[in-house]
Specification:
Elements (H helix, E strand, L loop, with lengths): L6 E5 L3 H11 L5 E5 L5 H7 L4 E5 L10 H13 L4 E6 L4 H9 L4 E4 L4 H33 L13 H13 L6 E4 L6 H10 L8 E5 L8 H6 E2 L11 E2 L1 H5 L3 E5 L6 H13 L1 E2 L8 E2 L3 E6 L3 H6 L5 H7 L2 E4 L10 H15 L6 E2 L1 H9 L5 H15 L4 E2 L1 H4 L16 H15 L4 H8 L3 H11 L2
Helix pairs in contact: 13-15, 17-18
């Protein structure tokens, strides 16, 4: 026996008709809810998820022009613009039916009891509705993929003893759906590790959606993660799909989770517990199926003790913890990483085949790399851009220039002052953006904006 699908809300002032429709349709659909009072439609939409609304066209005695039904349809579409409406009419009025469909109805049925007509109409509407939602979901994911085309999916993990040990654990964890917490300093490759786990999982053919929580303003947290409906707030010009919904079926990576406020933590915990999200301004919860991977450079255990991070949220995200070592503690991987970046950037900037001299590799291996892999990546990119030869030597790497210099006392360039001050703060805090932003007296999102602005 095929699995029943489809949830239907039937609204009609004729209680006998409601009972008859419920009994007849129950064997064919997952859920049938009936209501005789149209004023309670919004309440039902808040509490349940429906695929079809069967709606009477007339509720007031003596009125048969269909305006009441059209009014309630417009109200329903303000709440859920995608809900399919099938009108119930007691009048064989073709003009009224055409008008209803022009204004957004999916179809109509007459109150003259024709079982085959009723069932075939509803099944056709449901099938079309299901197809529309599938297409809509694919379009949303396709748009997100286009937005992420610049992000490279290939990556270099490393062959050092430390990384081999970590990858052995990843090999055991990745095929499962357990939540993973990745720890490590900024620039140690936490997102690369998350992508690696995704690629080794059964969800590898689905979406990997990355969210930098440190760059999201508190007021936009729900909109970014759960989505919003058009008109939910001043700047909500169109519907927005949240990251949870985009990642459904795949992996959701939440970077910098230690940066969340307690209020945002509570909302995130509720979404993880219920496995559903409700867009801002929406009333219809959306079921989601995600594999969660989080990352942070902050001491979450200490933050729990200090009351800055919820203990129940930590337990939920921390089924398996993976701590990535700083680059200075895995120097055996520096040469491999440098050559990997060299191959990427020589292709990107059309420089042909390039290589490092032995002195250059030795120089790279001797650096402290306070900014870890990200700093090494930037150093190699700069060398590729500025080098005039196919072999990159020590002089091409500008390693000495990476040390923080002091400004000339006669320099009054505010931009240069700000750039060097930010760089100094990041280096002094060993890449910890939370500490650096506090030292600078700015919030994390502002710091991220300035890092991008100055290409630090």
């Amino acid at each position: 026996m095929p699995t029943k699908e489809g949830n239907i809300l039937i609204v009609d002032d004729n209680k006998e008709l409601l009972l008859a429709l419920k009994l007849y349709l129950k064997p064919h659909f997952s859920s049938i809810i009936t209501e005789h009072n149209p004023n309670r439609i919004s309440e039902h939409l808040r509490n349940h998820s429906f695929d079809i609304l069967m709606l009477d066209m007339n509720f007031t005695a003596g009125i048969n022009n269909g305006n009441e039904g059209l009014y309630w349809m417009s109200e329903v579409h303000k709440i859920d613009s995608d809900l399919a409406v099938v009108f119930i009419t007691g009048f064989s009025d073709v003009e009224l039916a055409v008008r209803a469909i022009k204004e957004g109805a999916a179809d109509f049925i007459e109150k003259s009891w024709d079982e085959r007509k009723i069932l075939s109409t509803l099944l056709s509407v449901f099938k079309l509705q299901k197809s529309k939602r599938t297409i809509s979901g694919l379009q949303k994911k396709q748009k997100h993929l286009k937005d992420c085309l610049s992000a490279r999916e290939d990556f270099f993990i490393g062959n050092s003893e430390a990384m081999n040990s970590i990858m052995a654990m990843v090999g055991k964890v990745a095929p499962t759906d357990v939540n993973v917490l990745i720890l490590g300093e900024n620039g140690t490759g936490k997102e690369v590790m998350a992508r690696s786990i995704h690629q080794l999982s059964d969800r590898k053919d689905e979406m990997f959606v990355s969210v930098d929580l440190g760059a999201i303003h508190e007021n936009l947290f729900e909109s970014e993660l759960f989505g919003h409906k058009k008109g939910a707030f001043t700047d909500a010009k169109t519907d927005r799909t949240g990251r949870f919904e985009l990642a459904s079926g795949g992996t959701l990576f939440l970077d910098e989770i230690g940066n969340l406020s307690l209020a945002a933590q509570a909302k995130l915990l509720a979404a993880l517990q219920n496995r559903e999200v409700t867009p801002v301004g929406g009333s219809r919860p959306i079921k989601v199926d995600i594999r969660l991977i989080c990352a942070t450079n902050m001491p979450l255990d200490k933050m729990v003790t200090e009351g800055r991070f919820r203990e129940d949220l930590l337990y939920r995200i921390n089924t398996i913890a993976i701590e990535l070592p700083a680059l200075r503690n895995r120097k055996d991987d520096i040469a491999g990483l440098a050559n990997f970046f060299l191959s990427q950037f020589s292709t990107k900037y059309k420089k042909g085949k390039m290589n490092f001299s032995a002195k250059a590799i030795n120089g790279l291996s001797q650096q402290n790399w306070a900014g870890n892999i990200r700093e090494l990546q930037h150093a190699v990119e700069k060398a590729v851009i500025l080098s005039e030869n196919n072999t990159i030597d020590m002089d091409d790497l500008f390693l000495n220039s990476q040390k923080i210099k002091h400004l000339d006392e006669d320099c009054y360039n505010l931009i240069e002052h700000e750039r060097l001050l930010i760089k100094k703060a990041i280096n002094n805090c060993k890449g910890n953006m939370s500490k650096a932003s506090k030292k600078l007296g700015i919030n994390r999102s502002t710091l991220y904006d300035k890092i991008k602005k100055y290409d630090l």
